[in-house]
Structures are given as structure tokens and as C-alpha cells.
Amino acid sequence: MPTPSHQLEAIKTFLRQNRSPFGKSAEQIRSEMAEAARQLPRCPDIKAEPVNIGELYGEWVSRDGITEIAAESAFLYFHGGGFIAGTCEMYRDLAARLSAACGIKVLTVEYRLAPEHRYPAANEDCLSAFYWLLGQGFLPENIILGGDSVGATLALMTLISLRDAGNAMPGAAILLSPHSDLIHLDGESYTSRAMTDPTGSLEGNQRIVEEYLGECEGELPALLSPLRLDLHGLPPILIQAGDQEVLLSDAERLAVQVRAAGSEVKLEIWEQMWSVFQFMAGLLVEGEQAIASIGEFVRTVSAAASKTARR
Question: What is the tally of structural domains in the chain?
């Protein structure tokens, strides 16, 4: 059973009232996002273990009572928030649900935020977090990389950076409502979904770029437009997006490009949903179902990799 339509409309109305970033400072945006997250229903059995990832704060997140946890694997997850906001605390609920669905612990990371820390600070921190996991003894193929919104973009950019450096790839990647092109912002859905998306807009995403890049002179960093880069040699990727979000075209075009480059990709478009609806899984049946699908994908990819390794 899908979430009742009247409940969906109530949620969307609330989200629309709080979506505009204009006239708000970074601190105000951070405060409002944190407060909104605190109002959502949470898993009652979240287990969060603080950890220092070099100079970054992180958390290992799982759920008490879940016994089927693969100790040799890790899900490295990068939060969204437009490069401006986001904390481990905000993402504990989603991380705990992902951990239970996938059967592995989730590591969330507080990468440096803009405008205090501009490009390439967040990119460097996310790459460092992956290397940190390697230093802890995790094999690349036993690491799942993922994130939502700009966090999904950071995961994708991390994959490209690892490949270009000649490093081994993670076992898979999970991208929730990714920005696949932060330079051109030319997806058709910026127009066709402008009235249906309760959280995102072209103007809001323009601010994301401005905050992260600042007064960037010369050509913009090509890495911020993964859609227009070479995407060969990537691990299996699951992309989830809502059919009402302005980033729909980014997800669809990215899937086409990854597949054309010879990599495995699965694209799921969820009806009546918006950007990173999985974050509201405590309220949305579709959020629970999407997380279950992520778990199925991760378990399938991990089983296939184990079978290959035994040969």
C-alpha cells in the first residue's frame, strides 16, 4: 500500500514552506535542517559509535538486535545538504535503516562544509574517508559507497577520482537523487518538475554551486560535472530518484551515460516522490520500500562478488 495521497500532500505542503534558501545564512539553513530532522520519527534502536576519521568526525551506525552484520564490509555514506549543511546526527535514522537493510555497518562522515570550506574541501574529505577505511583493513570490494543529493555527487566524484588514480574500486555505489551536473544545470526536469518538486529548484541548486565554488576564476572544475566525464570502469551502481524532483533528468541521463560506458547500473524512479524521500522513511511507505530495494541490491552485488572471489 502506498502512502495515502492526503498524507503525501500534507508532507509536500510542509516541505514547500521550508524549501527556499534565499535570504538565509548558512547557520540558519543548518539549524532549520537539523530541527526538521529531529521532528521525524526515528528507529528506537539506533546504535551510533563515534569515530575519528583523521581530523573528521564520523559515526559507525547500526541497529541493536540486528545480528546479520557482515563485519568485513562497510557502507561509507556521504550526507546531503547542498555542501552547506548536514551532520552525522541528522542522518542516524537513515543510516540505521540502511544498515539493517544491507546487513553491514554504515559509516557517516562530517566532511567540511561551505562557505567556510570551499571546493575541493568536501571532495578531499570524502576521498580521505575511503582511504581511512582501507587503512582500517577493509578491502575495496567490501566497501559500498553512497550518498544523497550532493552526497551522492561526492560519492560519484570519489569513484571517478579513485579510478583516475589507478586505485581499486569499491564493491558498489548507491546514489540517491544525485546532482550529475553542477556546472550546466540544464536538465529538462528543472523546468518540467519546477511546480511538483517540494524541496528543490534551479535557483536553489545555483546557490549550492555558488557556495561551494565561491568566486572561482577561470574554468569551473570538470569534476563537478560527472555527467560529462568518462564514466568507464565504475562498479555496479544503483540510482534512485523521485518522479517529481527537479533532479530527475540528472538521474536519468547519468544512468544512460554509465550504461553506455560499459558499467552496470540500475535506475529506480519512484512515483509521486521527491528528492531523497528515503530520508523520511519513518513517514513514507515508499521510503521503507526504497531502502529495502537498496538492501536487496547490496546483498545481490556482495553475493556475486563473493562467488567470483571463490572461483
Answer: 1
